[in-house]
UniProtKB/TrEMBL annotation:
The keyword Transferase applies. It holds the Pfam family Methyltransf_25. It comes from Actinomadura fulvescens. InterPro entries: Methyltransf_25, SAM-dependent_MTases_sf. GO terms for biological process: methylation. It comes from the Bacteria. Residues 53-153 form the Methyltransferase domain. This is Class I SAM-dependent methyltransferase. Keywords: Methyltransferase, Transferase. GO terms for molecular function: methyltransferase activity. The keyword Heme does not apply.
């Protein structure tokens, strides 16, 4: 049972989610490979065929849908605070067993209590989302997450993590490799960007009532190099929160699947 009421038509939502996926994949060519590695890890490490999973910063539900495709007995609670992305996910996945969207801000202390879960979770997942949370707020978020996870439970976070603070020369070289790869890939055609997607969505009358006032401005913000984009910030915060092990399961350059075991 969903906590939101779908108000968009499925056709409109399908169109915008497909466009969302294209712009994400344009700048994250290994997005699907990272998704597969994450879902493989959940399937191998959840410990049961019907795990309870949180999707943190779920967006329109791209990862949640892939998890349910692989683990149809799972229960997934998909959390985000953006009204448009939640509405798109709700419209496309309305009525799908095992998936519930929740409007919650992970930066607000006490967010976990609002979920009203009846047991500890087996896994939490996130992709390209938690770098938006500042370092101090991230420590609070991870501390609450640790209390929700059962002993041995998994947290899997796929994102671009910089090692600028620990290995600046390697970080610079990695950026150079990425720039060269983008130049080759976009030689013929540059894909739609993040801000361009938001600007187009804001111009669609069907979506107007779901666009937050600052959504387009926020889409243009540059979070590269922010404290929460550093690998060390996430690793340190997870260890401080009581996770027994923290390490990288999959990696291509600074694109990593970070794993923490409770």
């Amino acid at each position: 049972m969903s906590t939101l009421t779908p108000q968009l038509t499925t056709d409109v939502a399908d169109h915008w989610i497909a466009r969302w996926d294209r712009q994400q994949e344009g700048y994250l060519p290994d997005r699907e490979e990272r998704f597969t590695a994450l879902v493989d890890a959940v399937e191998a490490g959840a410990g049961r065929p019907d795990p309870l999973i949180l999707d943190l910063g779920c967006g329109p539900g791209s990862l949640s849908a892939r998890l349910l495709d692989r683990l149809p007995e799972a229960t997934i609670v998909a959390i985000d605070t953006d009204p448009l992305l939640l509405a798109l996910g709700e419209a496309v996945h309305a009525g799908r067993d095992g998936l519930r969207f929740v409007d919650l801000d992970l930066r607000t202390p006490g967010w976990s209590a609002a979920l009203r879960l009846d047991r500890q979770i087996d896994a939490a997942v996130s992709t390209t989302a938690l770098h938006w949370i500042s370092g101090p707020e991230l420590r609070t978020t991870y501390a609450e997450l640790a209390r929700l996870l059962r002993p041995g439970g998994l947290f899997l976070n796929g994102d671009n993590f910089s090692v600028e603070d620990q290995a600046p020369a390697i970080a610079r070289l990695d950026r150079s490799l990425q720039e060269r790869e983008r130049t080759r890939r976009f030689a013929a055609d540059r894909p739609e960007g993040w801000r361009e997607w938001w600007e187009a969505a804001a111009a669609d009358p069907a979506l107007a009532s779901f666009i937050a006032p600052d959504a387009v401005d926020a889409a243009g913000s540059d979070h590269n190099g922010s404290e929460s984009g550093l690998l060390s910030t996430h690793v340190d915060a997870l260890r401080e929160s009581g996770f027994a092990e923290v390490g990288t399961l999959w990696q291509r350059g600074d694109n990593r699947l970070l794993c923490a075991v409770r």
